[in-house]
C-alpha cells in the first residue's frame, strides 16, 4: 500500500465517489453554483451522472483497498 501511484489512484477514486454522492444528493445546489438552469431534466441528468460517478469511484476504491 506504500506505492505512490496506488495512493494517487485511491485519492482520485475516493474523490470521484464523494463528488458523485454530492451530485446525487444536491443536484440543485451544484447547478446553482454553476449558474446553470435547474429544470427537472437538468437535475435528472446531474443525478444520473452522480450515480455513475459514485458507482465507478466506489468500485475502484474498493478494489484498491484490497491487498
What do these coordinates show?
By secondary structure, the chain is mainly α. Helices cover 82% and strands 0% of the residues. It is built from three helices and no strands. Helix 1 runs antiparallel to helix 3. It is elongated, with a radius of gyration of 14 Å. 13% of the residues are buried. The mean pLDDT is 91.
SSE topology:
Layout: H1 4-25, H2 27-33, H3 40-65
Helix pairs in contact: 1-3
Summarize this entry quickly.
By secondary structure, the chain is mainly α. Helices cover 82% and strands 0% of the residues. 13% of the residues are buried.
List keywords for this structure.
67 residues; mainly alpha; single chain; elongated; 0% strand
> How does the overall form come out from the CA principal axes?
elongated
Q: How large is the share of residues in beta strands?
A: under 5%
Taking all residues together, what is the mean pLDDT? 91
Order of helices and strands: HHH
Low-confidence stretches: none
- The beta-strand count equals 0
Oligomeric state: single chain
Radius of gyration: 14 Å
Distance between the first and last residues' Cα: 8 Å
How would you sum up the major sheet?
none
Helix coverage percent of residues?
A: over 70%
Q: Structural class, please? A: mainly alpha
Q: Number of DSSP helices?
A: 3
